[in-house]
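Reference record
================
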Amino acid sequence: MPVARISMRQIIEVLRLKYEAGLSHERIARACGLSKGVVGKYVNLAQAHDVTWPLPEDVDEVGLEALLFPAKTPPARFTEPDYFQVHQELKTKGVTLQLLWAEYVERHSDKAYRYSQFCHHYRLWRGRQRRSMRQVHRAGEKIFIDYCGPTVPVVDRSTGEMRKAQVFVAVLGASSYTFAEATWSQSLPDWIASHQRMLAFYGGVAELLVPDNLKAAVTKPIDIPRRSTRPTPNWPPTTRLPYYRHAPTNPRTRRKLKPPYCWSSAGYWPGYGTGCSSPWPN
């Protein structure tokens, strides 16, 4: 059985008699009722942890115990990912947490987190980083709209010709309810037609439409409120639906559009069922 540790008060007395009184180990052992070997053990332990006499004023019995007997950290069951590197990689177009987790598992095998824990620990790490302003979205207030960066290949069944299609994405601010569809271009006619199908899908309109700084929506950026000046000739004359353009230097204001971008770039867009449509006939 392991020998029981003496009290911290006795250890402090041993150090005092050793360094302040200058006694030998034998005399210290008789004075404290200890064996000579125990005295030598704790003197050597103090020297190994750079504990000097007199003790610093802020070191009491609890502090001295922490210095002489630091808590042992159990070996890690899992290898922690480099969360900063994960965060940087996610800024690359087409990179998702699923892809980064697969690379992490390939490197660490049985010591890797499962995907759910990988995402959980990354979000905990991200939450401890630089703080930003929390945005509160009222129901029915805003629809965030934009075109996704990656395009979608479309193959003509009769000719085999492949064309690139643009992905129009709209997200309700409060619920993140998403509408997405593919069109041939980002031109004004396609832009307006996508709006019509989007509003029909939602079954109503919001107070504000919030596009990014794309040419089909904004002709000239102006001060707040930033409103697009593009005409909407296919909408009824009585329609009064204002646009509010994002500040181009503040990408956090369009954060709602990020998840649909990730799904599209990861190749999941064709199966996304919340609100996918296509203006093309079968």
Remarks:
- Residues 83-127 form one domain.
- Residues 83 and 123 are 9 Å apart (CA to CA).
